[in-house]
Amino acid sequence: MKLNPAQDQAVHFIGGPCLVLAGAGSGKTRVITNKIAYLVRKCDYKARNIAAVTFTNKAAREMKERVLQTLSKSEARGLMVSTFHSLGLDIIRREHKTLNLKAGFTLFDDQDQLALLKDLTEQELDGDKEALSRLVSTISNWKNDLVLPTRAARIAQDPEQVLFAECYARYQRQMKAYNALDFDDLILMPTLLLKTNDEVRQFWQNKIRYLLVDEYQDTNASQYELVKLIAGERARFTVVGDDDQSIYSWRGARPQNLVLLKDDYPQLKVIMLEQNYRSRGQILQCANILIANNPHDFEKKLFSDMAYEAPVRVLFAKNEEHEAERVVAEIMGHKFMNGAKFGQYAILYRGNHQSRLLEKQLMTNRIPYKISGGTSFFSRTEVKDMMAYLRLLVNPDDDNAFLRVVNTPRREIGPTSLEKLGTYANSRGKSLFAASFEIGLEQTLDGRGLMAVRAFCNWLVRRGEEAARGGAQDAVRDMIKDINYEEWLYESSPSPRAAEMRMQNVSTIFKWVSQMLEGSELEDAMTLPEVVIRLTLRDMMERGEDEDDGEQVQLMTLHSSKGLEFPYVFMVGMEEGLLPHQSSIDEDNIEEERRLAYVGITRAQQALTFTLCRERRQYGEQIRPEPSRFLLELPQQELDWEHNRKPPSETERMEKGQASVANLRAMFKK
DNA sequence: CAGAGGAGCCTTTTT
DNA sequence: GGCTCCTCTG
Question: Which of A642, A647, A574, A644 lies closest to A613 in space, CA to CA?
Answer without folding.
Answer: A574
